[in-house]
Fold Peroxidase.
Amino acid sequence: MAGRPVNALVIRLLLVSLTIRILGSVDAGRSLQGRSDPLQYSFYKSSCPSAESIVRQVVSNAVSHEARMAGSLLRLHFHDCFVQGCDGSLLLKSIPDVLEGEQEARPNDNSVRGFEVVDDIKSALEKECPGVVSCADILAMAARDSVAVSGGPSYPVLLGRRDSLTASRSLANQNLPGFNFNVSDLVANFANVGLSPKDMVVLSGGHTIGKANCNTFAARLTPNADDPTALESAYRESLVPQCPTGANAAFVDLDVASPTLFDNGYYSSLLRSRGLLHSDQVLYATPSTTHDQVARYAKSQAAFFADFTTAMIKMGNIDPLTGSTQGEVRTQCGFVNSS
């Protein structure tokens, strides 16, 4: 008889503990997504179990054909998430008098590419699992796989995003970071979408792969001894013949040391004043916490990889559309289903 009250008390305590844990999980989900139905790591486990392997195979084939494509696919996810959240809005094509797409925005024009690879992925997925995998999720998976096939870290991707019905060229012009930004501009720009200065520095490391158009750094080809972000002279001189006057269609590797390998070479280049873009070199040239973080990543690739994984997952959680009532799953990534 004496044991019953104790057992009852234990049961009550266990129930209270369980309730707290459940509520805590729900609150964490709301905090992560701003909604009660957060993304999941195993979202397509039942509905399309081969989804991730299909994406990985198409990305691997595309990058093996053209190494630059890895940086392009990573950039698509980045530029999508900074405008309206990670909702695939960047993929929508402009339709006169109907939709003003984001691809023609100033930061995207002659810059974003890889749409044909996304379409190839979507086509393969539609054959396997019609109407199941969203284009926004394709961008998240393709970015991860582009990093992995280039020698970088592979990480689990939260899935369950749905595709937007709209796009915003004005927000793309307003929200995407510029190649001529200073540290304060970059910090404010990333804070606008809920990312920290630390996130900004580590996500900038994505420039360890890919190329930049000559017009984004043309002003840096003129010597300027008073500029703390000025290019190292030998490196600057090597760039001049790659960017002849008027050759705005020319592209140059962002990371001269290892342009097709996802590593910490980007940060090592900044220590040598070989950051191609002003917005790259300023991270080390400015006496601030960004300077110390660059030096840390230049010293430790493991630290860069660990923080990059965390920041990519965080970026992929920017205002996704989830649940059955938000957005849609497009059958073609360039058009909403009604069109």
